[in-house]
């Protein structure tokens, strides 16, 4: 409530207090019984709120700074989605780096074999040589 609302509430309460003294006795008794009924209903509602865990933060006796079990379950539910997602992202990044490294090592091995071989580089560019290699491997089996 802001200051303007509080001022209005105090003025209304003051006006009601002043006019309460001028009420007839029968009206005062009816108002008193209505107040007792309202208070008894209010107490029943607040007792029901105390036993309802999902409504624990709604009750008047609870501060908004208190920690409730519901807050923990909401937090755990959110983390239950976020943590596996983070692990999945790091896992995929790790797999990507691993595959890149393996491809780099394989390419380096092929380059090393080509450079240390006795054949000239032009032999690898010849299409007939590729056919010879293909036929040569079939004959060995």
Automatic annotation (TrEMBL):
The chain crosses the membrane at residues 75-96. The keyword Transmembrane helix applies. InterPro entries: DUF3619. Keywords: Membrane, Transmembrane, Transmembrane helix. It comes from the Bacteria. It holds the Pfam family DUF3619. This is DUF3619 family protein. It comes from Oxalicibacterium solurbis.
């Amino acid at each position: 409530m802001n200051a303007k609302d509080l001022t209005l509430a105090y003025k209304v309460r003051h006006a009601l207090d002043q006019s309460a003294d001028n009420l007839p006795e029968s009206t005062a008794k009816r108002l008193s019984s209505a107040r007792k009924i309202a208070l008894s209903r209010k107490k029943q509602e607040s007792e029901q709120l105390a036993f309802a865990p999902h409504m624990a933060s709604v009750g008047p006796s609870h501060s908004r700074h208190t920690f409730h079990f519901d807050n923990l379950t909401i937090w755990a539910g959110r983390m239950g989605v976020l943590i596996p997602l983070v692990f999945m992202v790091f896992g995929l990044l790790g797999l990507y780096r691993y595959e890149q490294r393996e491809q780099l090592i394989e390419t380096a091995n092929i380059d090393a074999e080509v450079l240390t071989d006795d054949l000239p580089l032009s032999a690898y560019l010849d299409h007939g040589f590729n056919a010879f290699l293909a036929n040569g491997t079939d004959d060995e089996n």
